[in-house]
Amino acid sequence: MKIFAAVLSVLLLSGWQYGVSGNPATVPHPCNGHLELCTRPYSQVSFGCTHNSYSYAPPAGLPVLNQERTIKEQLNDGIRAFMLDVVKPSPEETLWDRVEIFFRNLFSSNKATDDQVHLCHGSCDLIDKGPLADTLVVFREFLDANPTEVITFIIENVSGFHVNDLKPSFVHSGIEKYAFVPTPTFSANATNHSGYHWPTLGQMISDNQRLVVFIDSNAQTDVVPYILPEWEYVVEIPYSNIHPIKEFPCNQDRPRDGVPRDLLVLNHFGYNRLTVAGKNIDTPLTSSQVQENKYNSLGSLQAHLSTCANIWGESRVFNFITLDYYDVGNRSIFDIVDKINRVSK
User: Fold this and answer.
1) Cβ density class 120-158: b for 16+ within 10 Å, e for less
2) Which residues are within 8 A (CB) of 321 and not within 5 positions of it... i.e. 6 or more apart?
3) Is the previous residue joined to 24 through a cis bond, with omega within 30 degrees of 0?
4) CA angle at residue 49 from 44 to 53, to 5 degrees?
5) Burial of 174 (0-12, 13-18, 19+ CB in 10 A)
6) Which residues make beta-bridge pairs with 153?
7) Among 92-101, 113-122, 288-297, 305-314, which is the least confidently predicted range?
8) What is the mean pLDDT of the chain?
9) How far apart are CA 50 and CA 267, in angstroms?
């Protein structure tokens, strides 16, 4: 891999540019696994995405799990977009908790902020995967080792962090150097949330800006230019699909302004709903439920795409195909992504 990275660097320095010629045959290496994708704008590419990517065992058996495989395993399998929830953990109260934090910070080379931005599902009392910076190291190591891959973060800012609270995690993990920053020409032709001049995957790889970061609230690109406001560029279809699911919907759910954007999240997962005293409590389906009901099967995904094509048009690219337990159902997510991208395995 070091030899490959060195060769790639020489090619780029000597004038090779991904996607500039418009001819995939002139590109020395594939982009996200396929030569055809090198000449396509980021907005015209589909990516396999995991919902609550960090929410996997241990601890096992909790009603808040969404995945079975670790971030590293997801990356190795081919997942290229990741939904991450950033949460401020509850204050540590005991003396031993404080001792643990002291020594963890003393010997850790990847410190986050003093307040610790964590990856948690709603509440860190349920599942806490630790500092965001620690997980970003895993992503950075993947990008280090795979110089022709582009990945995306879709961050839910549960605790309403300021971008200055999040930036240290990107800096300390070493991943900031890969973050995509829009150029002045990026928005030159944009009107009403669409028409941005997205670079091709090849251009992003050539520029070594191979990480796109969206956040659902509190983006300030004049402060941190690479943490982009999700709702300026992205729309999502409904995510609160209650089991049993007869048909996955595809109407625009967020934002609810009826205005299309360049990028579209196709949420293909469901919840169990318990109603107590008139209040709905939704919890993720288990992997067994997903398997038994074939929600992740190729047939289910194809039916969902058909519904979406009727609403959004046959030419619309569905950018982020988002699943719980993507590995359940013969990993059909990758077949669907290839179909949308019009590439072979």
Assistant:
1) bbeebeebbbbbbbbbbbebbebbeebbbbbbbbbbbbb
2) 46, 47, 48, 49, 266, 268, 301, 333, 336, 337, 340
3) no
4) 150
5) middle
6) 82, 213
7) 92-101
8) 89
9) 10
Q: What is the C-alpha to C-alpha distance for residues 80 and 152, in angstroms, rounded to an integer?
A: 6
Cα separation, 229 vs 216, in Å, equals 6
Per-residue model confidence as pLDDT tens digits over 150-179: 999 999 999 999 999 999 999 999 999 999
Q: What is the pTM of this model?
A: 0.87
Neighbours of 222 (CB within 10 A): 7
Predicted local confidence at residue 90, as pLDDT: 81
Give strand ranges (E) for the chain. 47-50, 81-87, 118-121, 123-131, 151-157, 211-215, 227-229, 234-236, 263-267, 271-276, 279-284, 320-323
* Residues paired with 131 in a beta bridge: 118
What letter would DSSP give residue 313? -
**Cα gap 150→41, rounded to integer Å:** 12
Which is it for the CA torsion 120, 126, 131, 136, positive or negative?
negative
CA dihedral 21, 26, 28, 33 (to 10 degrees): 80
Residue 234 bridge partners (DSSP)? 263
The answer for residues whose C-beta is within 8 angstroms of residue 160's C-beta and 6 or more apart is 217, 218
What is the Cα–Cα distance from 240 to 214, expressed in whole angstroms?
A: 21
> What are 47-98's pLDDT values in tens digits?
999 999 999 998 888 889 999 999 999 999 999 999 999 999 987 544 455 5
